[in-house]
Structures are given as structure tokens and as C-alpha cells.
Write a structure and sequence with these properties.
The chain is mainly alpha-helical. The protein has a domain at about 35-95: Tyrosine recombinase, N-terminal domain (DNA polymerase, domain 1). About 60% of the residues lie in helices and about 0% in strands. The protein has 6 helices and no strands. The protein is globular.
Length: about 100
């Protein structure tokens, strides 16, 4: 994981944004870092998002909706036997997409 220093500088100095910067959504890690989440949370979110994408055979998250999220969470509960407290954590990670 490489931290984009140029993006960090632009956050620190708001007047440095260009119209090109405003046209795209910040990347996942930039969004997580802006919320000052811990490194461990960042790693967990990336892991859950990878699992979600791989579960759906590498489909782009933008092409999936609520049914895809429900299918993934159901898969976690029924087939992977994850704890009930784990499902909200996976959902929180997916929400960043």
C-alpha cells in the first residue's frame, strides 16, 4: 500500500484542488485514511472488500447492488459460519465501495 502524498497535500491545502480532482471519487484507502481509522481497520476493510469482489467472480462493485451484498452476507453466515458480530463489520467495509 502506497500513500498518495500529492492527495494528502491537497487535503492539507484545500485551495490546491483542480477540476480534475473533483471529477473522480477518492480511492478507497484515501477515504478510510481521511476518517483516521487505524491501520488494522484499514487492512480489515481491504480484506473484506477483496472477499466480496472475489465472491462475485471479480465483478466490479459498481455493477452490484443490494442483492449482491445480501448474497455475500448470507454466504458468510451460512457457509462460512462467521459470528453474527462479524457480519456488520463486513457490511461496513462494503459500504465504502
Amino acid at each position: 500500500m502506497i500513500y498518495n502524498e500529492d492527495f494528502a497535500i491537497r487535503i492539507a491545502k484545500p485551495g490546491l484542488y483542480t477540476s480534475q480532482d473533483m471529477d473522480h471519487k477518492p480511492k478507497l484507502l484515501d477515504q478510510v485514511r481521511l476518517k483516521h481509522y487505524s491501520i488494522r481497520t484499514e487492512q480489515a476493510y481491504v480484506d473484506w472488500i477483496k472477499r466480496f469482489i472475489l465472491f462475485h467472480h471479480k465483478r466490479h462493485p459498481a455493477s452490484m447492488g443490494v442483492p449482491a451484498v445480501r448474497a455475500f452476507l448470507s454466504h458468510l453466515a451460512v457457509e462460512r459460519h462467521v459470528a453474527a458480530s462479524t457480519q456488520p463489520r463486513a457490511l461496513s467495509a462494503i459500504v465504502f465501495l
